[in-house]
Amino acid sequence: MQAISNALRGQESENFQEAIRVLDIILRQHAAKQGCLLVRQSYFHNDPKNFADVGDVSTTMIITPGPVVDFLIANQNVRDPFSLDWAKAKRTLKNLRIKTSPSNQEFKITGLSEFPCKEQMFTLKVKGGADDATEEVTVYDYFVNHRNIQLRYSADLPCINVGKPKRPTFFPLEVLSTLQRASKPQERMRGLTDVDYGCSAEEF
């Protein structure tokens, strides 16, 4: 206790470092009980009023979980996904951690497709065919007809890419949700590299 008392007064003692660690543990436990979100040495109240617009790339930001499309609409303050500025959206989404539905896998966004979902093609390996049997399908067709997932508005919107530049993996916008995250832009998540359910020729 004497070491802690000295530490609070800014005086170093024999057990100074241990006292600091004890104080850190106490403060973190108290913050966690209060429902705070802990990010390294920072504490954030888990309150939607504190969620920051990710357009400010110089500060820490907190992203509330929910559909990616809702996140973009709120971020750009537009009425619907067809009013989005996709050049701006591409910058906003870069490296954002997302979750896919219904597989619940987590990835990081690496970019957008060149064409809308109903036109963006990829090479699909044919199940039950020869080892090298493939077919060209659109991302929209794959999700609707091969995976029986109804897409209400993604057909005319860009796909979200979670793959690599030379090996893209596409998902329609509406099957993705953001994950709660507080981070500095340069330290945004390191996403998983396994790709099992997106439109990637390597996995099908």
TrEMBL record:
GO annotation, cellular component aspect: ribonucleoprotein complex
TM region positions: none
Keyword Repressor: yes
Pfam families the UniProt entry points to: PAZ
UniProt cross-references to Gene3D superfamilies, sorted A to Z: paz domain
Molecular function per GO: RNA binding
Any GO BP: regulation of translation
PROSITE patterns referenced in this protein's UniProt entry, alphabetically: PAZ
InterPro entries from the UniProt entry: PAZ_dom, PAZ_dom_sf
Residues annotated as domain PAZ: 67-180
This protein's UniProt keywords: Repressor, Ribonucleoprotein, RNA-binding, RNA-mediated gene silencing, Translation regulation
Family: Belongs to the argonaute family. Ago subfamily.
PANTHER family: EUKARYOTIC TRANSLATION INITIATION FACTOR 2C
Protein name: PAZ domain-containing protein
Species of origin: Crotalaria pallida
